[in-house]
Design brief:
Residues 7-32, 51-84 form the 4Fe-4S ferredoxin-type domain. InterPro entries: 4Fe4S_Fe-S-bd, 4Fe4S_Fe_S_CS, Ion_transpt_RnfC/RsxC. It comes from Catenisphaera adipataccumulans. One of its GO terms (cellular component) is membrane. The chain is mainly α. It has one domain (20-102). The protein is 41% helix and 0% strand. Helix 2 packs across helix 4 (78-102).
C-alpha cells in the first residue's frame, strides 16, 4: 500500500488558533480528543482541555465522517490531522505487533 502524503498546507503555520470551543469534540461520533491532536500538530504537547476530559476515542477510531472539520469555526483541516495521527498510531501498532511476534 503506498504511503499517503498530506497536503503541505496542513503544515503551514497560520494566524489561526484553536479557541477550544469544543464543537469538534461534541460532534465527533468516535469520541476523539481532537483539540489535543491539533495542539500536537502545531508543535505543542497534548493537554487536557475543558472539553476533552472524558474523550476516550483514539485517532485510529476515526470513521472519517469529516464532521469535525465542518464544525470548526477556525477552518482547521481537522479530518486530515486526525488521519495523520491515525496512520501514525496504526504504523506503531503494526511495529509493536511485529516485535512481539519475533520474540523468542
Amino acid at each position: 500500500m503506498p504511503q499517503q502524503t498530506l497536503p503541505s498546507a496542513l503544515y503551514e503555520k497560520t494566524d489561526r488558533i484553536c479557541r477550544n470551543c469544543g464543537r469538534c469534540v461534541r460532534a465527533c461520533p468516535a469520541d476523539i480528543d481532537i483539540p489535543s491532536l491539533l495542539i500536537m500538530e502545531e508543535g505543542g504537547h497534548a493537554v487536557e482541555t475543558k472539553h476533552t476530559a472524558s474523550q476516550d476515542g483514539q485517532p485510529i477510531d476515526c470513521i472519517e465522517c469529516g464532521i469535525c472539520s465542518m464544525r470548526c469555526p477556525q477552518g482547521f483541516p481537522l479530518l486530515q490531522i486526525v488521519r495523520k495521527y491515525a496512520m501514525k498510531q496504526a504504523s506503531e501498532s503494526i511495529f509493536i505487533h511485529s516485535l512481539e511476534e519475533n520474540q523468542i
